[in-house]
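Private note to self, pasted from the team thread so I don't lose it. Backbone tokens:
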């Protein structure tokens, strides 16, 4: 079986890095990017200097201003961040045509056999990618390298504290990631996580030690695919021409932990818009939504709801998602991430029920916002549910 070599390129403190690209005087200073205006703004991105001052992710601007007078707080310019993201992705594509963009600041790149093309090691290739993105775009990135997407993601997380580069060699996989909590693996949901712990699986090493027959019975083909990915065999390849998904999930870890419901709502608003926008690109509709929270100690909380009729509209999904978030939220807990999953997807014509009329909601306002963002940049339009 052919062994793939996959890298994940992740932009560092992307919003702050974009502001520093446009204003080099901000280098080395405590910079924060916030959403909202003046006293209603909250911090969504911080430089390492701002972190060192003690500024927290999700902290309101009205608290930051008097307590951290040296901090420079800048309103977010999402349209500009989208432009710079395109520059980063276009630069990455000069190294390989096989690039899968997963978000505004993240992309997988298939480097298989390119060591022969460039006459150097894979480590040297990703070092060159990192330096080239900096030289041409002025954005710092961290790059993780492995023989599967799952390992590349784990490596990219480690790269942030390892001078921007981290490699998981195929012969040292379990030496490097074996003791990591199974919850650290991207894509493991609440039910699977609970099932694993009940079965004595707490680390990556615990999971891959299980026999294939047991994994197949407990988690199906997806479980076997995950074991393959964690042992270095790619089952999900880099795809620059993706097919319609069965579900759409958007979730990201915060730069720092937070207890702020306002910040969680803001993050979830962004996730909903990104997920619904992907759904509309496929001419799709969702019939359910799930909201998740992951606490500081990796406890996974989730709740879901169904829609009376299939929809692809931001506002309808957002209102339901925020309501679910408020049901999950506990003010005494500290959170590391939140996310949303659009479920029970259908595309094109929606199948009608035999007993009741199904009227899919193809939201015209959301389609209009998509068109404006495509022309003028992300964030150009603010709806009533946005900050």
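Design output:
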């Amino acid at each position: 079986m052919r062994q793939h070599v996959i890298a994940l390129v992740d932009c560092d403190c992307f919003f702050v890095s974009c502001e520093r690209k446009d204003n080099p005087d901000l280098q080395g200073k405590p910079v924060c990017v916030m959403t909202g205006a003046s006293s209603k703004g909250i911090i969504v991105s911080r430089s390492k200097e701002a972190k060192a001052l003690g500024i927290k992710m999700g902290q309101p601007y009205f608290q930051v201003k008097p307590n951290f007078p040296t901090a420079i707080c800048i309103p977010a310019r999402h349209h500009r961040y989208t432009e710079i993201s395109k520059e980063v992705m276009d630069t990455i594509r000069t190294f390989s045509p096989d690039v899968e963009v997963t978000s505004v600041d993240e992309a997988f790149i298939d480097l298989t056999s390119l060591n022969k093309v460039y006459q150097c090691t894979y480590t040297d290739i990703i070092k060159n990618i990192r330096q080239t993105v900096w030289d041409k775009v002025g954005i710092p990135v961290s790059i993780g390298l492995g023989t599967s997407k799952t390992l590349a993601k784990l490596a990219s997380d480690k790269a942030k504290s390892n001078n921007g580069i981290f490699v998981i060699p195929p012969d040292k996989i379990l030496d490097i990631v074996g003791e990591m909590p199974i919850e650290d693996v991207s894509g493991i949901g609440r039910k699977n996580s609970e099932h694993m712990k009940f079965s004595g699986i707490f680390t990556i090493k615990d999971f891959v030690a299980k026999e294939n027959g047991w994994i197949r019975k407990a988690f199906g083909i997806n479980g076997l695919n995950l074991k393959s990915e964690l042992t270095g065999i790619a089952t999900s390849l880099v795809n620059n021409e993706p097919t319609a998904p069965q579900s759409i999930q958007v979730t990201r870890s915060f730069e720092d932990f937070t207890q702020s419901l306002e910040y969680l709502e803001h993050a979830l608003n962004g996730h909903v818009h990104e997920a619904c926008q992907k759904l509309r690109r496929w001419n799709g509709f969702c019939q359910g939504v799930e909201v998740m929270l992951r606490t500081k100690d990796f406890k996974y909380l989730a709740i879901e709801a169904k829609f009376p009729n299939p929809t692809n509209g931001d506002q309808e999904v957002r209102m339901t998602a925020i309501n679910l978030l408020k049901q999950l939220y506990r003010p005494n807990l500290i959170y590391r991430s939140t996310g949303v999953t659009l479920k029970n997807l259908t595309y094109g014509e929606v199948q009608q029920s035999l007993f009741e009329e199904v009227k899919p909601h193809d939201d015209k306002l959301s389609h209009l916002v998509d068109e404006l963002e495509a022309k003028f940049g992300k964030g150009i339009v603010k709806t009533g549910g946005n900050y």
